[in-house]
Amino acid sequence: MDIPKTDAAHHRRRRRIVYALVMAGAPLAVAVGLAGMRPAAPRVEKALLWTGAVQRGRMLRTVRGVGSLVPEQVRRLPAPSEGRVEGLPLQAGTAVTPDTIVIVLHNPALEQQAIEVESQWRAAEAQYAELKAQLESQRLDIEDAVARLDGEVEEAKLRADVDEELARQGLVADLTHKVSRSRAEILARRHAMERSRREVFAQSARAQLAVQQATVEQRRTLARLKRSQVDALRVRAGIDGVLQRVLVEVGQQVAAGADLARVAQPGRLKAVVQIAETEARDIQPGLPAVIDTRNGRVAATVSRVDPGVHANAVSVDLAPAAELPKGARPDLTVEGIIEIDQIDGVLYIGRPARARENSSLELFRLVDGSEAVRTKVKVGRVSVDAVEVLEGLREGDEVVLSDTSPWDGVERVLLR
To answer: In this structure, are residues 174 and 119 in contact, taking their beta carbons and an 8 Å threshold?
Structure first.
């Protein structure tokens, strides 16, 4: 029996439509399938990883900082006055004594002032000597007048007594006796006045000499001050030690108070380390510490904690409890490890990269030694090389402690 041509054409159109739909939907299906697939886990050599096991017990909490060795006694040598650097007799590293001249400055104006003030001092001393001579001459004149009046008073008294006796006997007139008595009384009053004048003059002379002496002392003090300022232009070390640093050059003009050099006692060194401000809050003077000079370690004690914060760090001074290793010298880079306390009966692991106190982080926990899976962990107190585990891990678990940032997009890592 014959099939109608219209049915055959209809079937052919249906097949074409189905083929077209299949071809159009195939890429979409592939894309959906790929999107639903998990990314392939990376493979890593286990020997290249830093791992650690969770332990329970005593955790030593320490903090660490880098710094340098600094002399305990450093003497800063400032410029005593404005001047120009005339000479540098010594170089850094030279041993010095308190009287060793380190730097020579030159200030012509100051030297001229010293000469002028010394001249004024000598002039004041000459004026004092002249005034003293004048007052002494006046004193001698007054003493001479008093001495003459002493003789005249005695003579007048004797004359009055004689005339009184003669008048009683009627040998002289009463008028003569009265004249003699009156003259004796006048001379006695003049004598008393001269003696008072002598006392007043003595007081006045002492006052005038005291004023002039004060002027002399003032000029002498100022002259010595200026001379000491001139002498101070030859800057001395001031202590026994080593010239640590010279901060100026010959010919340089410096202002008063400017740093010229520094002298230190190299035998007495301390470590000054910088501790991150987030880790320094529990540091107190007296805590035990260790100074690592890269050439050996020595026990130390926290001697000072800076009350301020600079550049997000706190300066901490460590005083060594024993002699520092050989090669220790000022400005040597060292590491300080400070023991804060010991925590008993806690879970802890080695400190992972990017671990912070009282925070949460994700670590890769090892499973069957063949893979590591991402695990969320909450940590508490931290130390230089350990952290306290609060949640997410159990005793005996082994985790990757090294940096896992290259695996931020995966949930597990295969180990080889």
So the answer is: no
Question: Sheet holding 253-254: strands in order across?
Answer: 234-236, 101-106, 83-87, 253-254
Angle at 85 between CA 241 and CA 242, to 5 degrees: 10
* Residues pairing with 415 in the sheet: 44
DSSP of 120-136, one letter per residue? HHHHHHHHHHHHHHHHH
346 CB-contact burial (10 Å; exposed 0-12 / middle 13-18 / buried 19+): middle
Of the CATH numbers 3.30.365.10, 3.30.830.10, 3.40.1190.10, 2.40.50.100, which one belongs to the domain with range 77-101+235-262? 2.40.50.100
From the CB of residue 164, how many other CB atoms can be counted at a distance below 10 Å?
16
CATH C-level class of 46-70+268-415: mainly beta
Would you give per-residue pLDDT tens digits along the chain (416 residues)? Answer: 444 545 556 566 666 665 566 565 555 544 444 444 455 678 888 888 889 999 999 998 889 999 999 888 888 999 999 999 999 999 988 889 999 999 999 999 999 999 999 999 999 999 999 988 988 888 888 887 777 777 777 777 777 777 666 767 766 666 776 777 777 778 778 777 878 888 888 888 889 989 999 999 999 999 999 999 999 999 999 888 889 889 999 999 999 999 999 998 877 889 999 998 888 888 999 999 999 998 899 999 999 999 999 989 999 999 999 888 888 888 889 999 999 888 898 999 998 877 888 899 999 999 987 899 999 999 998 888 899 999 999 999 999 998 888 888 888 889 88
Residue type, 96: V
- At 400, the amino acid letter reads V
Residues 138 and 142: their CA atoms lie apart, in Å, by 6
**Closest of 409, 313, 315 to residue 362, by C-alpha:** 409
pTM: 0.55
For residues 80 and 259, is the Cβ–Cβ distance under 8 A? no
Domain layout of the chain by residue ranges: 46-70+268-415, 77-101+235-262, 109-232
Domains 46-70+268-415 and 77-101+235-262 share a fold: no
Helix boundaries (H) for 5-101: 5-36
By residue count, the chain amounts to 416
- CB-based contact 379:343 (threshold 8 Å): no
